[in-house]
Design goal:
By secondary structure, the chain is mainly α. It has 3 helices and 2 strands.
Length: about 60
């Protein structure tokens, strides 16, 4: 079972260097939905976050 507190800590401290730590919480066949799209799989989620970091200055999740 996932440790919710650990997931929240990983999300709140997310940056380019810690993306792998956040993705460790996702299953290989997971789906991710944000206001713009739904993607399937960890590699697709990695692309979503990578694009976010490429276009936004120091995004934060709280």
């Amino acid at each position: 079972m996932m440790d919710l507190a650990a997931f929240i800590a990983a999300a709140e401290s997310l940056d380019r260097q810690s993306l792998d730590r956040l993705l460790d919480f996702y299953a290989e066949d997971c789906q991710f939905t944000d206001p713009f799209q739904t993607v399937s799989g960890k590699s697709a989620i990695r692309r979503v976050y990578s694009e976010m970091f490429a276009h936004l200055h120091e995004p934060k999740f709280r």
